[in-house]
Design goal:
Elements: H1 2-33, H2 47-50, H3 55-60, E1 63-69, E2 72-77, H4 83-94, E3 98-103, H5 106-114, H6 116-123, H7 134-143, H8 147-159, H9 165-179, E4 184-189, E5 193-200, E6 203-211, H10 212-225, E7 237-245, E8 248-257, E9 264-270, H11 272-275, H12 286-296, E10 301-306, H13 313-324, E11 331-335, E12 346-349, H14 358-366, E13 372-375, H15 381-392, E14 396-401, H16 406-415, H17 420-426, E15 427-439, E16 445-448, H18 454-463, E17 479-482, E18 494-505, H19 508-514, H20 520-527, H21 535-544, H22 550-556
Helix pairs in contact: 7-9, 8-9, 9-10, 14-15, 15-17, 16-20, 18-21, 19-20
The structure holds zinc ion.
Amino acid sequence: MTIHFDEDKQNLRLKLLRLEEEEKSVQLVSEKYGLPYIDLTRVPINTDGLRLIPEQEARDNVMAVFDIIGKRISIAIHSPGYAPTIQSIRNLQQKGYETAVFLASKHSIEKAWDRYKDLSFAFETEAGSLDISNDEIEQLIEKTKKLQDISTLIEEALAIKKSHKISRVIAIIMAGGLSTKASDIHIEAEVDQARVRYRLDGVLIEVIHFDMETYRLLLSRIKLLSGLKLNVKEMAQDGRFTVKIYMSDIEIRTSTVPGSYGESIVMRILNPKSISTPMEELGFPERLLKILNTEIARPNGLILTTGPTGSGKTTTLYAFLRQVQSPEMKIITIEDPIEYHLPGVVQTQVEEKKNYNFESGLRAALRQDPDVIMVGEIRDGETASTAIQASLTGHLVFSTLHTNNAAGTFTRLVDLGVDPKVLTSAIRVAMAQRLVRKLCNDCKKKIPVPPERQALADELFTSLEGFEEMKYFPTKPTEVWTAVGCEKCNSTGYKGRIGVYEAILADKNIEFIVRENPSEREIREAAAPQRILTMKQDGLIKIFQGVTSFEELERVVDIAEEIAVVKKEEPIPTFSETTYTETPIIENTPAVEEPKIEESLVSVPKYTEEKSIEISSPELNTPTV
Ligand SMILES: [Zn+2]
């Protein structure tokens, strides 16, 4: 055993030495040709770049386009004198691309080629070979506007005796999900039948029941379609496939889990349109929107949004990214998982197996000289400290935290071990958010404020004194709207969703109180003079404006909690008065530039040029889209 282990070690060492030799010789050649050297195992590969050259051409000419920002592209090549390679580069230049050419080892270019499989997977869906044509789905979308249409069509399809009926049922289920804008499709086995449910605006709605035989056939088809193992039934599996409709690719992520009566399937529909909501349409209160627009235009600082899963945090951060995105900006994300593809942004995905987590990903991102970084979530002290450090050293950082409210951001970060003094220098805005369903405009009904809700109307009216939002309520609100249900909203009374928000800016008051180990309540009180609505106030305003209902707000916000009232003598701050500590205090946070080199052979991608053998590990893969 021991001998075997040593041999393995010996072989690995030899292999690593050979790779190191290869890198050295490429560096020598690069000096000769006057081309910069690059090690692609240490940089994230931007798959937008890969798309510019077909995989076969890239492999034949031993090259890869590994980054693209606007019209500027970075190309790694292996043989600078090889005519076909030069021709490929010329072709790109003729298409208007500005090219930066680097010399790389074949081993490191192979790392970029590896990422082609992520692309081809999305483009060459198995759908065609399984008799589901995208044309058929497009036609069905027109016929499945209502849930009732979907169940009728499925029943008709099941009645036919033809062999392709299962494909037809899948096509109807998919088309129905797309046309009703469902976020997920659930297919679950029960005792003697199976059911299909759609998640519409965050709520599961039943669509149809059918027999177990159909369920089993459907399950096999969907597993095949998603690249899952048919014979594996006792374990959870994840897969995906793509539907191309109306010229755009919609990715479907499938997951199966074993259940008492059979595997349960969930298909998540990642419709790029649903995430492309601009900031103006997310439901931010007017004043908060102005503040956010100012804050995300700054070159540095940390902007956090908090809330439970499904509260729209990702949508908000993506809207921020789209707002700041420009060809001059280098934006890098570390996500888990990448939910949507953002053009012009280098997106990387957490891969715990490869030791690429939020923290190591953030450190790797920092070596890429980014302007803006989005970290999917801050879960631990190391990630928190690195994110704070990054925001204090000239980067704009967006991230999320799991806390209930904006005040909780400060206490949570202190709990994670962040120095309170540093914290308030770094944070620009701490937000919290929830999603509520919007009342259907076609059927909502106006009613007098119910007596049991009168106290809420009074509380809102009193608490708004001195707020900009007072203008919406010259007198105390006396009417609200209630959900009814009609054909347009599948009888739910609601259609679409909107956010309710709150935010706290790290001003002098907050800076002072955070050092005193405060409770959330004390932070809320210290923030009251900022006169930014709380989620409760924002939600109540949306209720009295007829956007949503009491029932919806109660579902997601604690409306029993009192609103902190602003003391009369506090002046109303305007934007320019909102001041921040401009001198970063950084001595107590870990340095970003010199990350620890892990003992293990697997390490994060690096841009630096040190010759540690850890980096050349063959297992190492640059995480990409
Ligand atoms: Zn309606």
